[in-house]
Design brief:
With 203 residues, this protein is an alpha+beta fold. The protein has four helices and 13 strands. The strands form three sheets. The chain has a seven-stranded antiparallel sheet, sandwiched between helices. A three-stranded antiparallel sheet has the order 1-2-3. It has a three-stranded antiparallel sheet with strand order 4-5-13.
């Protein structure tokens, strides 16, 4: 009896130690500049230019281009983002599209409402959460998030809109719903890093 209690006590102490170490790592690595502790690893980030150097964004170094065969299954052709990046496990994904439609910063809110209505019509079971506007020096972003259901997993989604070179840029992120807490803060910071550099005379 005493031996079993000692084992339980040791296991309990080890769990406390592991949790303390995890908390310290999350406190130390918590920005795109320092790196972020995601899951069981420290994720590093780099600035990337997209769409013929019209947009700049900071993205995880470990994400790579999603294989075509997987992209065709995950995203129907009519809705497939122009650029799709994924993690090693293929469980967290970014997508980016730049459309020909002209738009100004102040019109992105209305565009977000329009896209949400399309999503709701195509998937009445969708569960929307919030919509917010993030204003930064070189870009205004409108962000909304929602939950969808795949065959055997709930999926957490974030969409963000911006006017890049006066055109509609739609960015998306999705992950397994059970992993939302791991990725949420990272995605918020990445969205904040989006810049329209199409007319950046200060470079």
């Amino acid at each position: 009896m005493n031996g079993n209690m000692a084992e339980i006590h040791i296991d309990y102490d080890e769990n406390i130690l592991l949790n303390q170490r995890l908390i310290k790592k999350k406190e130390k690595y918590h920005t795109l500049e320092t790196g972020m502790f995601i899951g069981d690893r420290i994720e590093t980030f780099s600035k990337v230019k997209m769409f013929d150097d019209k947009m700049e964004i900071t993205l995880p170094d470990s994400f790579g281009v999603m294989p075509d065969n997987y992209a065709r299954v995950k995203y129907p052709s009519s809705f497939r983002p122009h650029i799709i990046l994924t993690n090693v496990k293929l469980t967290a994904n970014f997508g980016f599209s730049l459309f020909s439609q002209k738009i100004e910063d102040e019109e992105t809110d209305g565009m977000a409402v329009y896209l949400k209505n399309i999503l709701k019509r195509s998937n009445p079971a969708i569960q929307f959460y919030s919509q917010k506007t993030i204003k930064t020096l070189k870009c205004t972003k409108v962000v909304y998030d929602f939950r969808t259901q795949a065959l055997d997993e709930a999926i957490y989604n974030i969409h963000f809109l911006a006017a890049i070179n006066s055109r509609v840029m739609l960015g998306i992120f999705n992950c397994l719903y059970r992993d939302t807490d791991e990725w949420y803060e990272m995605v918020q910071q990445i969205i904040g890093s989006v810049k329209d550099i199409s007319m950046d005379w200060r470079k």
